[in-house]
Structure formats: C-alpha cells, structure tokens
Amino acid sequence: xxxxxxxxxxxxxxxxxxxxxxxxxxxxxxxxxxxxxxxxxxxxxxxxxxxxxxxxxxxxxxxxxxxxxxxxxxxxxxxxxxxxxxxxxxxxxxxxxxxxxxxxxxxxxxxxxxxxxxxxxxxxxxxxxxxxxxxxxxxxxxxxxxxxxxxxxxxxxxxxxxxxxxxxxxxxxxxxxxxxxxxxxxxxxxxxxxxxxxxxxxxxxxxxxxxxxxxxxxxxxxxxxxxxxxxxxxxxxxxxxxxxxxxxxxxxxxxxxxxxxxxxxxxxxxxxxxxxxxxxxxxxxxxxxxxxxxxxxxxxxxxxxxxxxxxxxxxxxxxxxxxxxxxxxxxxxxxxxxxxxxxxxxxxxxxxxxxxxxxxxxxxxxxxxxxxxxxxxxxxxxxxxxxxxxxxxxxxx
Length: 397
Fold this sequence. Notes:
Elements: E1 8-14, E2 19-25, E3 31-38, E4 45-51, E5 56-62, H1 67-80, E6 87-94, E7 105-106, H2 109-117, H3 126-139, E8 144-149, H4 159-162, H5 168-171, H6 182-195, E9 203-208, E10 214-219, E11 222-226, H7 247-257, H8 261-270, H9 273-278, H10 283-289, H11 294-318, E12 323-327, H12 328-333, H13 335-342, H14 354-358, E13 372-375, H15 380-396
Parallel strand pairs: 1-6, 6-8, 9-12, 12-13
Antiparallel strand pairs: 1-2, 2-3, 3-4, 4-5, 7-8, 9-10, 10-11
Helix pairs in contact: 1-3, 6-15, 10-11, 11-13
C-alpha cells in the first residue's frame, strides 16, 4: 500500500488507440504505478495497472467503443484508490497547441477554447486529448492541471527549417513545421546531459522509432530540424502513416479519386506506410513474416531506407554528427532494425558493435567509431511529471 502522507502527480498520455497514465511522487518524481489501455476501439482492449515492482494490481479485457469509455474506467479506478493515491496535480500530453501554445502551461478555460480552434492541425489527436482533459477536470475540479505540448522542444527551430515556402497568409493561419515527439526528445536530452557535461556542444540525432516515428537534429542543445512537419504524418515511413510524399501525390488522389479531406486524412494516417506495403504495421510481426513474405521484406527495407536517408539529411543540416541515439519502441528493442539502419553508414563514422547491439547496451558503437551510437529508453510520462513540477514551482515563486 502506498504511503498515505505522499501526494502524486498524474501523467496522462493519450495515443491514437491507447491511453497511458503514471503516478509519480510529487516531491521526488519517483514512479508509484503505471496503467496502459491498448487497442481501444477493437473488440477486446486490455487494461493493465502495475506497481513499481512490475506486479499487476489490476487488469481486464473490455470492448471500449470510444476513447471516452476508457478514460471513464481510468478515472473510476483512480477515484476508488483515492485514499491510497491522493492526486495533487495532473499533466496532460497534447500533441499540438497551435502557434500560440508551445511551452508547458496551466490548463484554463481560455486555453481549451484556443485549442478547439486548432483541431484542424491535429484532427486525429486533439479531440480525444481535449475531452480527456475535460473529463479529469470534472472528476478533479480542485486539482491543478498542466498542458505539456509535444511541439515545445522544437519551438526554437530556425525559420529556414520551420517555414514552408508558401505565401505568408498561410503561415499566419498556423501552417508551418511544428515537429513532434518533443517530450521524448526532451527526456533523452536530460538523460544525455546527466551522462555528458558537454552534451550541449554536440551535434546529435535522436531517432524516436515506433509505430509513429520521427528524428530530430539537436545542435548545441537546440532542435534545428526534425522530420515531422505540420502534422505527425510527415517524415519517415511509419506503421500506418505515409511519411513524406510529393505534393503531386495528393493532387493525384484528389483529382483522380475525388477524395474528400477526411478520406485523404484517413488514407495517409491509417492505411499507408508499412501497412500499405505488407498489410501489417507492426515491425516485430513483419520481422517474423520476412522469411516467407516478399511484402514484409519490402516493408522493412523501405522503413530502414527511410531512416537511413533522414540520418544523412539531418547530419548534413548540422554540418556534422557526434552522436546517434535510438529510442522509442522499435529503437529501444529491435537490434536487427538498428543494425540495418546503420549498415553502410561507415563513411559517416558509424561503426556498430554487433554484440553490444544485440544486448541492447547503452553504447552500441565500437570504441573506434567516430560517431557514438546509443540506445536510451524514453519516458514521456516522467518528462511530463518533471514539467508539471516546474510549472507549479514557477507559480509558487
């Protein structure tokens, strides 16, 4: 049983078909427990709540027709356990806050009204994120809640990397490159800073590879370019997302198939990428299929080629590279994908240590490698808890 003298920060992380929460000690930000609901919208979603030791405290399978149903169950569980886990503050991951909201901030009615105006920038994410905030506001009206924007890490990107070559009126409407996975990147940079005092003087590429995948070029501690743009659809080939396309592809689809904007969004977000090539979006499943499936092999080759190409591009943007960091579900766990991505990059100075790579060690490059290659597990929920505490401390002072 938790220490009742403690109070907690609750970190809420909404995905496209998943919901995670973690409880952290308000003072130390030590983890207390985690919850994950996966496959929401499918016939049987799974909910699992674990304590810090990994022991399952509660679990069940259930059909959640929509996101709100899952949120309701999470709130009900937290309310039942409120005497054990009193919540002092709540942090919410928001994929997009538009041009006006990039830094973490307290959630107010005005902020929520502003976010409604920018749903068109993230139609697959913001509606569920906003409704989740409103549900927790209703359940915990006295608890302070903080918005943590995924675009924050990229807010200092130079204009030549940030702005599209389009008339100014579109930029004024919020059309520019925001970048995403910012909470993950900020966490990785904090981890690197703890390991290297000179990290802010380095040229670093962080590859967040998961079902959604992106990379960032960090020069002297600042994001100077990233693969995603105005939406999380762009950049690398992903599980169900197309990644970057020639604008002519969109014109072709609009003209030849008379697609609506909603149909185009659905195609590019949910039925493209690895799924379009091989019928499957999960990389581990594709690796299992590869010996018998030419389509699986093609999908994996395209994914690794895309990642390799962007490493070269981002290194060129920084005029050099000192470190490559793999993170995210694929980046942290798939040695074979990391090896395939790095294969042929010896000309850049990347020399992988195969044994270290297979063991998922922290450093997977050889001592002689000019570029250090690392594997670091990301933690967006912990990053949110740290940001919440920072915002609360700023208000007190």
